[in-house]
Amino acid sequence: MTATTDDRLAPNQRLARGLKYTAVGPVDISRGVAGLSMQAAAAAGASARRRYQDGQLRRQLAAVAEKLEALPDVLPDLLADVAPAKPKHRRRPWLIAAVAAAVLAGGAVAFSVVRRTKRPEPPATLPPSVDVAPKP
Asked: Which carries the bigger pLDDT value, residue 57 or residue 11?
């Protein structure tokens, strides 16, 4: 194996490579996006931890806890005023499935177009299969 196959790609490099190559594009694009979102989630967690350690989040959580302590007193009044609402139908899974199907269909079309353009064109006129002027 060469040294280049052992190197791991960063998510942004994987996304760039996925957009460059159509055959492995959908796989690399999804892995790149997943990697970038994982990095964003890790950065958000680190930021929340840092804010908590600085005391900002700690004070905010203390204020929320005080309001939650008063909630049992206020809750019966609030529930008496609110009528039961209909449950919302979530359409997000269908939307995600539709987007995934569209991406796969687009990748298949792109793959077939690229594959078709790489094939050599057959000659316009084929040579005769037998000699036109037989030799005596």
From this structure: 11
Question: Do residues 52 and 133 touch, judged by C-beta distance below 8 A?
Answer: no
CA–CA separation, 19 and 29 (whole Å): 7
> Which residue, among 33, 11, 23, 36, has the nearest Cα to 100 in the 3D structure?
33
Other beta carbons less than 10 A from residue 29's beta carbon:
18
Find tokens 């052992």 and name the residue: 6
Nearest residue to 28 (alpha-carbon basis) of 38, 43, 18: 18
For helices 25-54 and 56-81, give the axis angle rounded to 10 degrees. 100
H helices present in the chain, as ranges = 3-6, 11-20, 25-54, 56-81, 92-118
**The pLDDT of residue 1 is above 60:** no
Q: Which amino acid does the sequence have at 113? A: V
Cα–chain center distance at 62: 37
**Sign of the dihedral defined by the CA atoms of residues 50, 56, 61, 62, in that order:** positive
Tokens 């316009």 belong to 124
